[in-house]
């Protein structure tokens, strides 16, 4: 058989090791240590099959269409950045420069940070902020479940919507996969505009999700 031919076996052996060595340089980029270790383990044990799976779902990047849409937003970021720079003034040092490189927007003053290390207290504050909003609520989350906590937040969004506050929610469909349909139905019933961030498709790459929860209430 062809597979038993010495030359074929040699080519297969070399190909497997090229995949393994290439994985060591490519896989750790833009990944957490745990995710990188998992992919490397798979690629070292099953090089060819692991490579095919990696090409389908493993690349931590955006598809070409989303990259094109991102490029169209660059003038907007440039205009907003210029406006904020005029208002902020001064030099924030290395930290501000690093933040500008990551987010493409300059740092401004007047910010305040409070660390809340209790989960229930975080939800209490989130609900209180939504209840105090007068114009808009924007909520970006990795996981939004239709459980008791999610229903409590949704009830606050419903109250805000009833006051004429514009409410919008974006959640990650991978992190929230277990509750996705229930969450969409729950939030839509409150009148909240809800969207899935980077919906996953079999033939479409999905960027690595963020674990942060970001809320803006005003």
Folded structure, characterized:
This protein has 218 residues and is of the alpha/beta class. The chain has 8 helices and 4 strands, in the order ααααααβαβαββ. It has helices at residues 6-26, 33-45, 47-58, 64-88, 93-103, 119-132, 148-162, 180-189, and strands at residues 136-141, 166-171, 193-196, 214-217. The chain has a 4-stranded mixed beta sheet, with helices on one face. The chain is extended. The chain starts with 5 loop residues before the first helix and ends with a strand.
Write the layout of secondary structure elements.
Elements: H1 6-26, H2 33-45, H3 47-58, H4 64-88, H5 93-103, H6 119-132, E1 136-141, H7 148-162, E2 166-171, H8 180-189, E3 193-196, E4 214-217
Parallel strand pairs: 1-2, 2-3
Antiparallel strand pairs: 1-4
Helix pairs in contact: 2-3, 6-7, 7-8
Beta fraction: 5-15%
Largest sheet properties: 4 strands, mixed
Structure summary, number of beta strands? 4
| Spatial gap, N to C terminus | 71 Å
What characteristic shape results from the CA principal axes? extended
- Helical percent range? 55-70%
Radius of gyration over C-alpha positions, nearest whole angstrom: 23 Å
Which regions have little confidence, pLDDT < 50, spanning 5+ residues? 206-211
How confident overall, as mean pLDDT? Answer: 84
- For the biggest β-sheet, the strand order reads 3-2-1-4
The secondary-structure element order is HHHHHHEHEHEE
**What is the count of DSSP helices, taking H or I runs of 4+ residues?**
8
Q: Structural class of the helix and strand makeup?
A: alpha/beta
